[in-house]
Design brief:
By secondary structure, this protein is α+β, with helices and mostly antiparallel strands. The protein has two domains: 213 residues, Immunoglobulin-like; 39 residues. Helix content is 33%, strand content 40%. It has six helices and 13 strands. The strands form three sheets. Strands 2-13-12-4-7-9 form a six-stranded mixed sheet. Helix 5 crosses helix 6. The longest helix is centred in the C-terminal third of the chain and has 25 residues. About 2% of the residues have low confidence.
């Protein structure tokens, strides 16, 4: 009820701008603006919803695309190669800025809504992510690494694309459910919503979601960052102890 009241208030606040504008106005919202990562967290589902207000009161049918991105991070991607029965690192490619999480939902398949150039500008879809590689590498090899990175994160549940994942009611209200897996990283997530008509993005709006840790998980992360040497010693010692304890236990059985 609180979220509904807040959304209705946002609609009322948008009315003055709505009356003076000729372009549609997006009024977006999210079911929750905070996600807490703690012990037992198995994932969540974010509901991205809102309204597309048309001041011209026309019968235009708008498409809606929503994109949820997690904080960007640099990564080094290595390719494994099997040599004499042993898997070893071979080729590698570095990236300056890669979204830790990416999910897109659209009212129709993306290329039925916009052309490839527009999809690339707004990063609408997994095929149009800007992954920012660093260093020099053969374009064909870079494409192969990028496709491998996207495929890996899809299998991890961190990248997803939901064609026809946005429901539009009465040409005004829209909603999309975005699953959040348990292995997401903490940080600031940005939800972008685009209203599209006749192949053009005519309105956009953003909302934010904060994902953070608390309790035991936060303590472990802070210890690993602030006392990395002692944390490493403790982790190794704990592993040795658990191995010794398991050996003694099975020896008694």
């Amino acid at each position: 009820m609180t979220r509904l009241l807040a959304f209705l208030m946002a609609l009322l606040l948008a009315m003055p701008a709505f009356a003076q504008s000729e372009d549609p106005i997006l009024v977006p919202d999210i079911s929750q603006h905070e996600i807490v990562l703690q012990q037992g967290f198995t994932g969540a589902t974010l509901l991205l919803y809102g309204a597309v207000l048309d001041p011209a009161d026309s019968d235009a049918q708008y498409d809606v695309v929503v994109v949820l991105k997690g904080p960007s991070e640099p990564i080094l991607l290595r390719e494994k190669e099997r040599i004499f029965g042993i898997w070893v690192n071979s080729e590698e490619s570095a990236y300056r800025s890669v979204p830790s999480f990416y999910a897109m939902a659209s009212s129709r398949p993306v290329l039925d809504i916009v052309d490839e150039r527009t999809a690339a500008i707004y990063e609408l879809g997994l095929d149009y992510l800007q992954l920012s590689p660093s260093g020099s590498i053969d374009p064909a090899e870079q494409q192969r690494f990028s496709e491998g990175l996207v495929d890996l994160r899809q299998r991890q549940g961190l990248y997803a694309q939901y064609d026809e994942g946005v429901e539009i009611s009465q040409g005004v209200l829209y909603r999309a459910d975005i699953p959040i897996p348990s292995n997401v990283v903490a940080g600031r997530y940005v939800a972008e919503t685009f209203a599209i008509y006749d192949g053009r993005v005519i309105s956009s709006a953003t909302s934010e979601v904060q994902v953070f840790k608390e309790g035991f998980e936060l303590g472990v992360e802070e210890a690993a960052n602030d006392y990395s040497f002692f944390y490493g010693l403790f982790a190794v010692g704990l592993s040795v102890f658990m191995g010794w304890a398991a050996g003694r236990l099975f020896a008694l059985v």
